[in-house]
């Protein structure tokens, strides 16, 4: 009998890539992906723990799925990913809907976890691994067919004091470069035109084989070497590890996209020290200067946390002034959310009142809106090479794609151009998109 699997993914791009690994593992036991949870015999929710509201969203979603189990008592519901790792068997106690709890390094074990659940037992594997990278599993991609994610490292060895990721994803490990190149080649040959190399800290990628060491800049050069028509992106860079070699490689290779996501978190050196980020405001500024010097056309995006422990108005103003100085093209901005068990939760008081966190966050967002608008305005009259991804969200008359700098562009055109590169003259902009025409 055909087994229908529905996967819903929360959290970062790594979880999107992991959901493909899950689908691939379970295709081995005859499970086929479906788009409607109502049809499925197995529902897996791939979860995120990074902030409290990320977990709350999943808990709310579980409530919505409850009626499906009433209709179909044989339905198996599993929680995968970071929240599964963090909450473990507690999930069985609080959420009776859940049959399977599968941590991020346990996906090879899913067939047996599913079999156990099918026999009426609660099944769990939350063992973290020092070596699992799923390198031999070809992901089963249900995506658009133009742009794919490839995990190159798993886990994280940094100990940013606010962050739950090292606890739920385990120690950092790099994946065999041959398997990365093989996956990228496979994607290119099946029509994909963009791959994004993923890791919590891609700059610390390292593969030692014999007396040869492959670092991130060499890996990305090799991936870009597959074909000039394959765009290569990467995320996330850590300011303490972003190397000049990488910047030079980016400058040399046209198909490595000119965009760096460089999370700053705060503009105050005092707060950065409490966050254990291992760089100061000045170090961060010198990284931005290096980017501007070596790749003048590069865009830079960032992540910012408002209201971390002990943050004062003065610290907050330093964040605003650094944003202004750097002129970020785009940013993800968050209120600090204390995560149980992290160093900040154990050693520091979450002492900035929620309303102050919100007020500061709103100021950060409003400044970023004007910076984003300024960044788009700079593109007016320029011609950008755009990889066509498909119809725009609003209309089937228009196509959409992104520039090398990762800015979304909307322009009239024929859907058959999907997967092609076109040159677009930018004529208009909003804070979210550029608009133009193919020339
Ligand atoms: N590895 C990446 C990002 C990981 S999580 C890096 O080092 O930057 C993505 C973003 O979530 C972080 O950059 C940070 O801005 C935010 N974040 C992580 N923990 C958080 C917390 N406890 N509260 C609020 N935001 C958090
Ligand atoms: Fe978390 Fe820091 Fe690791 Fe990023 S680098 S995942 S913020 S611990
Ligand atoms: Fe969230 Fe886990 Fe990614 S905590 S941000 S899904 S690594």
Describe the structure in your own words.
The chain is α/β, with parallel strands linked by helices and 439 residues long. The chain has helices spanning 13-27, 52-71, 82-87, 90-94, 110-118, 165-169, 177-189, 216-224, 244-252, 269-274, 281-294, 313-326, 343-347, 354-377, and strands spanning 3-9, 31-33, 42-47, 76-81, 100-102, 123-125, 147-151, 153-154, 173-174, 194-198, 206-209, 212-215, 231-235, 259-261, 299-306, 330-335, 383-391, 398-402, 408-412, 421-429, 434-438. It folds into four domains: 3-125, Rossmann fold (3-Layer(aba) Sandwich); 143-257, Transcription Regulator spoIIAA, CATH 3.30.750; 290-378, Transcription Regulator spoIIAA (2-Layer Sandwich), CATH 3.30.750.200; 383-438, OB fold (Dihydrolipoamide Acetyltransferase, E2P). Helices cover 35% and strands 24% of the residues. Helix 8 (216-224) packs parallel to helix 9. The longest helix is centred in the last third of the chain and has 24 residues, at 354-377. It starts with a strand and ends with a strand. It binds S-adenosyl-L-homocysteine (SAH), iron/sulfur cluster and FE3-S4 cluster.
Write the layout of secondary structure elements.
Elements (H helix, E strand, L loop, with lengths): L2 E7 L3 H15 L3 E3 L8 E6 L4 H20 L4 E6 H6 L2 H5 L5 E3 L7 H9 L4 E3 L21 E5 L1 E2 L10 H5 L3 E2 L2 H13 L4 E5 L7 E4 L2 E4 H9 L6 E5 L8 H9 L6 E3 L7 H6 L6 H14 L4 E8 L6 H14 L3 E6 L7 H5 L6 H24 L5 E9 L6 E5 L5 E5 L8 E9 L4 E5 L1
Parallel strand pairs: 1-2, 1-3, 3-4, 4-5, 5-6, 7-10, 10-13, 14-15, 15-16, 19-21
Antiparallel strand pairs: 8-9, 11-12, 17-18, 17-20, 18-19, 20-21
Helix pairs in contact: 8-9, 12-14
The chain binds S-adenosyl-L-homocysteine, iron/sulfur cluster and FE3-S4 cluster.
The site of iron/sulfur cluster has 9 residues, from helix 6.
